[in-house]
Amino acid sequence: MFNGSRKYSPLPSSPSSSRASSSSSSSLPAAPRRSPRALQRHSSLLSQYSSLLESYTEGEIRQLISALVERYSQAMNSGGHELPLFPQAGSRRKRARARHKPCALKELEVSVSELGLGYESDETVLFRYCSGTCEAAVRSYDLSLKSMRSRRRIKKEKVRARPCCRPLAYDDDVSFLDAYNRYYTVNELSAKECGCV
């Protein structure tokens, strides 16, 4: 299919065309030439890809092309502007998007033992928690506090110079039986409403 060792030669020219080109060559500026090192790197890359593609069957190449086209169309439909060729770049974008999700209420089904409160129980509860960023909720207080910390006007106190996604209200109390059939009630366990405080 592809041959990496292919060498390109100039097109054959007739004597009349060589005469015309020699007369017009003085009026045209010289075209910039690539350095031999750049050409060598480019040809080695082409030979690697061509030898890789030669190992595929025609059906496999069609599958590869259709997968790339589908991936490209998905990227365009989701508002992307470029084809995410490398998985690392995609994961970086996902992490960046995750960092900028607004503060919201999330939930998770867990056993009482997993809560880390010292109770042994196999009962499951719905644990609601707050997750997200509060960049939009930055106020003058937060900016001034950050400035005072950077100028070392506030040194020893532990202060937070930006709002945090926290529960504004809590769900009803949670009751359960532990592994020894003892009855417990825990209050303010699950978030009911989240906000930036």
From TrEMBL:
Residues in TGF-beta family profile domain copies: 92-197
Signal among keywords: yes
Localization per Swiss-Prot or TrEMBL: Secreted
GO CC terms in record: extracellular region
Annotated CDD domains: TGF_beta_Neurturin (cd19383)
UniProt keyword terms in alphabetical order: Disulfide bond, Growth factor, Secreted, Signal
Subunit structure: Homodimer; disulfide-linked. Interacts with GFRA2 coreceptor and RET: forms a 2:2:2 ternary complex composed of NRTN ligand, GFRA2 and RET receptor. Also forms a 4:4:4 tetrameric complex composed of 4 copies of NRTN ligand, GFRA2 and RET receptor, which prevents endocytosis of RET.
Function: Growth factor that supports the survival of sympathetic neurons in culture. May regulate the development and maintenance of the CNS. Involved in the development of the neural crest. Might control the size of non-neuronal cell population such as haemopoietic cells. Acts by binding to its coreceptor, GFRA2, leading to autophosphorylation and activation of the RET receptor. Heparan sulfate-binding is required for signaling.
Protein's name according to its UniProt entry: Neurturin
Biological source species: Eudyptes sclateri
Gene: Nrtn
